[in-house]
Design goal:
The structure holds 3 protein chains of 3 kinds.
Chain A: H1 20-44, H2 53-80, H3 86-125, H4 129-132, H5 152-156, H6 181-204, H7 208-239, H8 247-281, H9 290-315
Helix pairs in contact in A: 1-2, 3-8, 3-9, 6-7, 6-9, 7-8, 8-9
Chain B: H1 12-16, H2 20-48, H3 59-94, H4 102-121, H5 149-176, H6 189-220, H7 234-268, H8 275-289, H9 304-316, H10 318-332, H11 341-364, H12 366-372, H13 376-406, E1 408-409, H14 412-438, H15 453-483, E2 485-486
Chain C: H1 2-10, H2 15-28, H3 45-78, H4 94-122, E1 130-137, E2 140-146, E3 153-157, H5 163-166, E4 184-187, E5 192-198, E6 203-207, E7 212-216, E8 222-226, E9 232-238, E10 250-256, H6 258-279, H7 285-304, H8 326-335, H9 351-363, H10 375-382
Helix pairs in contact in C: 1-2, 3-4, 7-9, 9-10
The chains are: A mainly alpha, B mainly alpha, C alpha+beta.
The complex binds heme-A (2 copies), dinuclear copper ion and copper (II) ion.
One heme-A binds next to helix 2, helix 3, helix 13 and helix 15 of chain B.
Chain lengths: 316, 519, 385
């Protein structure tokens, strides 16, 4: 039902001018400016000097969320009003696909980092290989193992390291056992992908309640996953002494799983919104449900990342 | 609800617009402002280097100038300039009514001004602005950085976000919005080069984001990515940075190739030679750009096998780039050439960029790079490809499409003067830098040994001349907009081909709301 | 001339005066190689090979340039509309496309051979006669001669050019910015292996004439080597941005005959031995005051004033630190105050000197603390005891 031009060609809906983008920029800027100031206060701030950084951050974050909400609302309303041609919908699809590709590249950098430190840096520091054969002079007694529970600094002692001290990196006492929580989490996340698939199927067959149900189950699985992740972090920090500062093992462990966890949260929020849309407003039809589809792709993507995490961070 | 509206009135038009031409215009002006800012930093650098000894700024501030100059030019001037061109031209070239995702388009733009405001404001912060070079190597940029580094990191995040959204938009537009009959192999080369550039951007900006995030963690949250004491490696930073950074330099140059491939045929009055091979060459360059990054790191102590691999891969890039250069020259061959300002800038481009490419090939040879690396030879190389490459092609583009954008004609005499002054100023600035580098002058130093005095002085004088010529450019553009003579109705140039030239000048606010049929 | 240049450069902002002072600059640079436009082949075989490779590629590029630009300018000059040229309309030719893909490819292969060979040589650090460890510090170099018997010799090499020259108050000397207080000394015709590392940020050790450039990475050691075939003094600079004074950490290598090198090394060793002997000695307050004054005048007075009254640095007289806990005082002396002009002197003056100067500061200028610091105290402090 998209607009038709005089020669019968479907027209592409170009929205009228809109303040959304500008407001999104300003609020996003405020958020990150606030975040930077908060972090700086934390590291270098004078506790006696009051700053507004928290206010910037909070106001920014709230208004950014509000703008995003308004923005998505606008797009949904437009779609419901039949303004979106098939071509426009294709633009959304392409947009989402390339967005996910950009996320793939982000994780590619993280996994690349993990590969590099595990396979090259560690052995080099322990004096192996062409590039590093003399490093034994700097880190006498350091032996490379992964997980690295004795950092080079631990091996030689802080006072004896030959580089200016720029932090304390005390290796952890143990490593996370993949057969416990991570295995449970794998099962949770994999099954959530399956239930999400069921939901999608139900939607395509116009079985609304089945859709709601399966999507709901997916959400529960997702949130339980996040919950377990929190428990795992607690245990790692308090029982194993595994922190961000525990040398490169802790660094990569939390960085990779942390960013994954963050993406799970984002995906879960996206799916929750789709769920609410279906529950409250009966959005989505059998062949027009891009909001759901995009969130589902994202969820599957996050799932695939987890499989790699499980392999390279936990098991191997 | 029809899309045949004119622009909204007043200032809010610019804040709220979803129109690709408005957004393109804003990008172009923004990038010009950043060019002036980055250029002003360069003038401080050149003034300080006019003579040996510390003259006008102290070393600490000098480093800030070098860093901010590089950052502002690359991320603030060149990249947005080409995005602005893409916005203006891609929909008109492929017969689309607008960009695929117009509101997001506006968002991509409006992220930039506050971001660069934040970046520039670091100059006034405690500890000063970023002073660790535009390549911000750890640990100078982490453990040893001034507090403003946190703002710098978030600024990079924001501009990365802007680039990614902008690129996704371009990809969606090109893939989805081509007019009927506009097959991929009929697209103007500018569109092709941007499609591939956009792909590069989506692929590497997230890597840069990951890189600065790791810095953030190392600085504030105790991680040890870049510290050997915890099992990390400062060189890891360089690998991640250059995995982004090398494709980045082709992100800068590919759209420039596109521009030149549009303009040369027009003034040679002859179709572009080897269109297909141009497309394949662009794609090969993009592909190769992912496997050459270590050529920036030959001296960090890479195992020799790796060094050889990256050396060979880097040398290979000369082949597809050569194909492009040869195609341009063959396009001119047996043409009927005229030499209006856009053509002059394109000829300057081909000549000087190729010289920059030659020095690139010299740099690519690892054993010799041990002598060249981090010397002014490198500085000369990359200004030949970036200033005489990207900036010259931008000037060409502005002169070429200005009649289409504004409906007015610029002043040809002033344009030619701009070209010749730029050409002379540019070479005076950067040619002697080859000598300086070969004679042993390191880059990023505020003060130098006496034997480097003469060439530095020449270079500084050249830089002032080149800088001043940009004022002429600004003046010419402003004069065109305010008081230019009307441009010819559709085609401003006799030999111009392409959908954009079938539109009236100035191009109406909304174009191709009904897609044209391309034969 | 110099005086004039000096005064003029104070007003450097005025372009006219800047031009005048150009003449001054010209006069300073008399003996350095002005107008040098090319790479130096240097004094090593490897350097000569690198130079040859550089020239080969350079000429190849020039010839390609002559052909390519020749065609371009020919076309520009003759195929122009104003000469009545009519445009042809050919726009592809598979055979020429193949030709200009293959020919550059072949040229590159031709270049790749010598490049590969030379690179393998650069990496061949085996069978060195001598190992020298090079450590980059913000902003100086430390050289440590590794002795098979563990009798290492090490020292720092600092920029010697004074602030007054840099700030144009005095005429600039011939080796402005390229001179150090203590150069690295190497024997001629010996293969020297360098173990390059850094203490804080990344630096790069570069001496063009020796054809060596290697990054100094904190926490890692990079190997490289050289074999100078001529005696002489060779100068270079740090080549990786390393902070404020990146432009002020030069390298000077003095290549000498083997015998001379041996003498120098032995002298260094006996100096070290002397200091070692002093390390265990107990000095009296008077001895320390006398020795300390000397060190103070040489190393500290510039900033803290001849009478401890302060200047760039805070006053030492009545300073809460110089009259407070010894450990804090030692800490400031040894580790400096980060972010200020107060450098870490622990790596620059030896423990004997440090003990003396700290004693001096605690007792001179009316501080009268009465305590005597011994070298061993400094040593223990550094060891974290
Ligand atoms: C627009 C940006 C741009 C472009 C297009 C290029 C193009 C190339 N660059 Fe450049 N480069 C930079 C921007 C760019 N560069 C920047 C910014 C830096 C420094 C970053 C920093 O450290 O701050 C840098 C640094 C840099 C280095 C690192 C130097 C060092 O730090 O030690 C190297 C090394 O290999 C290199 C190589 C090349 C090569 C081989 C090409 C090739 O693509 C060139 C190919 C072109 C030609 C060769 C000419 C045309 C070809 C023919 C006519 C065919 C026949 C020719 C032959 C057979 C030789 N570049
Ligand atoms: C595309 C990017 C780009 C562009 C366009 C330029 C443009 C210029 N750059 Fe470059 N430059 C870089 C990218 C770029 N640069 C990068 C990436 C680095 C490395 C940074 C690093 O080491 O980290 C660098 C480093 C660099 C150095 C080395 C600094 C050092 O190592 O310490 C120098 C020194 O001469 C220099 C000079 C110049 C000059 C004179 C121009 C001129 O072309 C600028 C001309 C423009 C203007 C002058 C502005 C417009 C006019 C006015 C404002 C009018 C007023 C002016 C007058 C009246 C004179 N640049
Ligand atoms: Cu040390 Cu630059
Ligand atoms: Cu590169």
């Amino acid at each position: 039902m998209a607009g038709q031009s005089n020669n019968g060609h479907e027209t592409y809906y170009v929205p009228e001018s809109s303040p959304l983008a500008f407001l999104a920029s300003i609020s996003l800027f405020l958020t990150l400016f606030g975040a930077a100031s908060m972090i700086n206060d934390m590291s270098w701030g004078d506790p006696d000097v009051a700053t507004n950084s928290k206010i910037y951050f909070t106001v920014g974050l709230f208004s950014f969320s509000a703008v995003l909400f308004w923005w998505f609302r606008t797009t949904i309303v437009e779609n419901l009003a039949g303004k979106n041609s098939a071509q426009l919908k294709r633009s959304y699809v392409i947009g989402m696909q390339w967005f996910i590709f950009s996320e793939v590249m982000f994780f590619f950098a993280l996994f690349g980092t993990l590969w590099y430190v595990r396979n090259l840096v560690g052995p080099w520091l322990a004096g192996e290989g062409e590039g590093g054969r003399m490093n034994g002079l700097l880190w006498p007694g350091f032996e490379y193992n992964w997980p690295m529970n004795t950092t080079p600094q631990d091996a030689v002692g802080i006072a004896n390291q030959t580089i200016a001290n720029n932090g304390t990196f005390k290796g952890a006492d143990g490593t996370v056992d993949w057969t416990h929580i991570p295995l449970i989490n794998t099962i949770l996340l994999l099954s959530s992908s399956v239930t999400l698939h069921f939901a999608h199927h139900a939607l395509k067959e116009e079985q609304r309640s089945k859709f709601n149900m399966w999507l709901g189950v997916t959400l529960i699985l997702g949130f339980v996953f996040v919950g377990f992740q929190v428990v795992e972090y607690q245990e790692a920090m308090h029982e194993l002494g595994l922190t961000l500062g525990a040398g490169i093992y802790g660094t990569t462990f939390f960085f990779l799983t942390g960013f994954h966890g963050f993406h799970v949260c984002m995906g879960a929020i996206m799916l929750t919104i789709q769920w609410l849309r279906s529950m409250k407003a009966s959005h989505f039809t059998k062949d027009d449900h891009f909001g759901f589809e995009a969130s589902a792709w994202y969820w599957h993507f996050v799932d695939v990342v987890w499989i790699f995490l499980m392999l390279f961070v936990y098991i191997l | 609800m029809s899309a045949h509206h004119g622009p909204a009135k007043g200032f809010t038009r610019w804040l709220t617009t979803t129109n690709h031409k408005d957004i393109g215009t804003m990008y172009l002006w923004f990038s010009f402002a950043m060019f002036i800012l980055g250029g002003a930093f360069a003038m401080v650098i050149r003034a300080e280097l006019f003579q040996p000894g510390i003259q006008i700024v102290d070393p600490e501030f000098f480093n800030q100038m070098t860093t901010m100059h590089g950052l502002v030019m690359v991320f603030g001037a060149i990249m947005p300039a080409f995005v602005g061109l893409a916005n203006w031209l891609i929909p008109m070239m492929i017969g689309a009514p607008d960009m695929a995702l117009p509101r997001m388009n506006n968002w991509s733009f409006w992220i930039l001004p506050p971001t660069f405001l934040m970046l520039a404001s670091t100059l006034f912060m405690d500890g000063g602005a970023p002073n660790y070079g535009w390549t911000f190597y750890a640990p100078l940029s982490t453990t040893y950085a001034p507090p403003s580094v946190t703002y710098f990191i978030f600024a990079i995040h924001l501009m990365g976000l802007s680039s990614i959204m902008g690129s996704i938009n371009i990809i969606a537009t090109v893939v989805n919005m081509r007019a009927p009959g506009m097959t991929y192999m009929k697209m103007p080369l500018f569109v092709w080069t941007w499609l591939i550039t956009a792909f590069l951007l989506v692929a590497v900006m997230p890597v840069l984001a990951a890189c600065v995030t790791m810095m953030l963690m190392d600085i504030h949250f105790g991680t040890s990515f870049f510290s050997a004491a915890g099992g990390g490696d400062p060189v890891l930073f360089q690998h991640i940075f250059w995995f982004f950074g090398h494709p980045e330099v082709y992100i800068i140059i590919l759209p420039a190739f596109g521009v030149v491939s549009q303009i040369i045929p027009t003034f040679a009055r002859k179709p572009l030679f080897g269109y297909d091979s141009m497309v394949y060459a662009t794609a090969s360059i993009a592909f190769l750009s992912f496997i050459v990054w270590v050529h920036h790191m030959y001296t960090v102590g890479i195992p020799v096998a790796g060094e050889l691999f990256f050396m060979y891969a880097t040398m290979l890039i000369a082949v597809p780039t050569g194909v492009k250069v040869f195609n341009w020259i063959t396009t001119m061959w047996q043409g009927a050439m005229t030499f209006e300002t856009p053509m002059l800038f394109c000829l300057g481009f081909v000549f000087l960029f190729t010289i920059g490419g030659f020095t690139g090939v010299m740099l690519s040879l690892a054993p010799v790079d041990f002598q060249y690396h981090d010397s002014y030879f490198v500085v000369a190389h990359f200004h030949y490809v970036m200033v005489a490459g990207a900036v010259f092609s931008m000037s060409a583009a502005v002169y070429y499409w200005l009649p289409k954008w504004t409906g007015k004609m610029y002043d040809e005499g002033m344009g030619k003067a701009h070209f010749w002054i730029s050409f002379i100023g540019f070479n005076l600035t950067f040619f002697p830098q080859h000598f300086l580098g070969l004679a042993g002058m390191p880059r990023r130093i505020p003060d130098y040994a006496l034997q480097f005095s003469d060439f530095n002085m020449m270079s500084s004088i050249g830089a002032f001349i080149y800088g001043a010529s940009q004022l002429l450019f600004l003046f010419n553009v402003l004069r065109t907009i305010l008081a230019g003579k009307p441009a010819p109705a559709e085609k401003a140039w006799e030999g111009a081909e392409g959908l954009e030239w079938t539109l009236p000048s100035p191009a109406p606010y909304h174009t191709f709301t009904t897609p044209p049929n391309v034969k | 001339m110099h005086l004039q240049a000096k005064r003029l450069s104070k007003l450097a902002l005025s372009p006219v005066l800047m031009l005048l002072s150009m003449l001054g600059t010209a006069a300073w640079a008399e003996e350095a190689q002005r107008w040098q436009t090319n790479l130096t082949p240097g004094v090593t075989e490897l350097g000569a090979k690198i130079y040859d490779l550089h020239m080969t590629v350079f000429w190849i590029c020039v010839w390609i340039g002559v052909v390519v630009f020749g065609l371009m300018f020919y076309s520009i000059l003759t195929h122009r509309k104003s000469l009545g040229a009519k445009p042809a309309d050919f726009h592809e030719s598979t055979s020429v496309e193949i030709a200009w893909t293959v020919v550059p490819f072949i040229i590159l292969i031709v270049i790749a051979f010598p490049a590969t060979k030379t690179l393998l040589e650069v990496y061949d650090t085996d069978d060195a006669d001598l190992d020298v460890m090079i450590t980059g510090y913000q902003w100086k170099w430390k050289y440590e001669y590794i002795d098979p018997n563990g009798d290492n010799v090490s020292f720092f090499s600092n920029l010697r050019t004074g602030k007054t020259e840099i700030y144009n108050e005095d005429a600039k000397g011939q080796h402005y910015l390229l001179e150090v207080d203590e150069p690295m000394v190497l024997p001629v015709n010996k293969k020297v292996r360098f173990l390059v590392t850094a203490n804080d940020v990344i630096h790069a050790w570069w001496v063009p004439a020796l054809a060596v450039k290697r990054d100094a990475i904190p926490g890692f050691i990079n190997e490289t080597w050289t074999k100078a075939t001529q005696t002489g003094i060779y100068r270079g600079q740090c080549a990786e941005l390393c902070g404020k004074d990146h432009g002020y950490m030069p390298i000077v290598v003095n290549v000498v005959e083997e015998a001379e090198y041996k003498n120098w090394l032995n002298e260094k060793k006996s100096q070290a031995a002397e200091i070692k002997a002093l390390m265990s000695k107990n000095f009296s307050l008077d001895e320390q005051m006398a020795a300390g004054k000397e060190v103070y005048d040489k190393s500290c007075a510039a900033c803290h004033g001849a009478n401890g009254e302060g200047g760039v640095g805070k006053a030492i007289a009545k300073s809460p630190i110089a009259t407070g806990a010894l450990a804090t005082h030692l800490d400031v002396g040894v580790n400096g105050v980060p972010g200020t002009a107060m450098q870490a002197f622990g790596g620059q003056i030896n423990d004997v000197e440090m003990a003396a100067v700290i004693t001096y500061q605690r007792n001179a200028f009316g501080n009268n603390m009465g305590d005597v610091v011994q070298p061993i105290d400094v040593y223990n402090f550094k060891q974290g005891k």
